[in-house]
Amino acid sequence: MAVLVNFTPGPRSLWDEPVAISVHGLTPTQRVTLHASLRDEKGELFESSAHYQADTVGQLDLRKAPALGGSYRGVEPMGLFRTLQPQKPFERLVKRDVQTPFHMDLEVYEGHDPQPTKLLARVVHERGFLGPGVRRIPVREGSVRATLFLPPGTGPFPGIIDLYGSGGGLCEYRASLLAGHDFAVLALAYFRFEDLPEELNDIHLEYFEEALDYMLKHPEVKGPGIGLLGFSKGGDLCLSMGSFLKGITATVLINGCVANTMTPLHYKEMTLPDLGNDLERLKVTESGLVDLTDFWNNPLEKPNCQSLIPIEKAQGPFLFIVGQDDHNWKSEAYACIASEQLQSHGKEKPQIICYPKTGHCIEPPYFPPCLISVHGMVGRAVFWGGESKAHFMAQVEIWEQIQTFFQRYLKSKESTFHNKM
């Protein structure tokens, strides 16, 4: 009897969907090793493996059977995804071209040998980033460099602008997946892309205002306001957009800072200085990894408070997503500062959701947690924080929290949007 590997619901799935993996046709209680691998667009290899034992009728279901060793132990239906590790140290798994899927190669080998040789079965599973009917529209309007993702069907759809951090470039994979949940999402680049500045120097908020105007005027984007989703540096940019620009309904920050960071921010006659840092506070672990936790200045101390973003001027509600083991900066403390700042001005307390053992690099669900990688600005390997399993599980819940928040404030007829006077 041939050994067969099944992926449920089928041979193709979207990256933010869980899959069930099962193996059929094994001998009763047969010991096998499952090996998973995929290559990114640069050709970098990511791998994981786990030892299993079939049941008494020769079946193996990863939703029920515990891994007995390898990359992980215990019952983890998505364990092979969680533990994908780069062959080249410090590489991070990201999707650069959402128009093509990742191909995950799953092999079943006989036995639990460290280097098993007898191949019993092999299957390739496609993990895509563009759901059925999702439209990808490159945007080159004025100075705006972005990609708009529209859901299937006829709009208008609730609109979101999606900003990533200090790595730069145009990151589309979160926006493309989110568009599959009935949002019109603009993935916006702001440096290191095409004719945009190569370095993160002297940001002008007028660029982001232009992107906001594009969304507000788009016939397939629902008004009266837009949602913002920002990670890391993108988080404080979203806070600045909400504080100085009109037309924003709700904002989600993933491990963001309450002060302007890394470079001065300009808007009309106003300049917000960047929150400084102190190289003497830069820590290096015993294994040579950079830890940035204490690197940044305290935004509450003079003169650093000049970098604080005046979020009391902002429109709409906030959701702060916080990894409590963030080693890039003190995200939880920043969220608390934001809460106090808003309440001291008579504003509504923001929603803050904290995740223990979760680090800085929070991705869409089922990405392997990135605990260590090369920092785009520092140029060295940085410890981002987090414990793999807890971080992985947090990413799944956070994805649901983001959608729930935007559904409440962007789709509801009882929107909390108010125009500034």
UniProtKB/TrEMBL annotation:
Family: Belongs to the C/M/P thioester hydrolase family.
Keyword entries, A-Z: Fatty acid metabolism, Lipid metabolism
Any GO molecular function: fatty acyl-CoA hydrolase activity
PANTHER family: ACYL-COENZYME A THIOESTERASE 6, ACYL-COENZYME A THIOESTERASE-RELATED
Domain of life: Eukaryota
Pfam families: BAAT_C, Bile_Hydr_Trans
The Acyl-CoA thioester hydrolase/bile acid-CoA amino acid N-acetyltransferase domain, residue ranges: 16-141
Organism listed in the record: Monodelphis domestica (Gray short-tailed opossum)
Domain BAAT/Acyl-CoA thioester hydrolase C-terminal intervals: 203-411
One GO term (biological process): fatty acid metabolic process
Spans through the membrane: none
Active site: residue positions: S232 (charge relay system), D326 (charge relay system), H360 (charge relay system)
Protein name from the UniProt record: Acyl-coenzyme A thioesterase 6-like
